[in-house]
Amino acid sequence: MKNVSFFRNVCIVFLVVLAVCKADGQAPEATPAKPAKLTVVKPANIVVVLDVSDRLKKDKQIERDIKIIRYIVAHFQETFVKAHINKGRRAGPYRHRLIFAVPEQPVPIPESSAAEHPKPYKVPSAIMEKLKIRDSGRMLGFDEFKIKRDMLLQEIGKLYEFVQRDNPYTGADIWQWFKEDAAHYLREGSHNYIICLSDGYLKFTPAIEEELKPGEFMEVGPWRDKEDWINHIIHLLPTKKDFSKYDITFLMIEINLHRDKKSGKAFPYDFDIIKAHWEPWLESMGIKDPKFELQVPEEVLGDVISSFLVPHQGTK
Question: Which CATH superfamily is domain 39-107+119-315 in?
Answer without folding.
Answer: von Willebrand factor, type A domain (3.40.50.410)
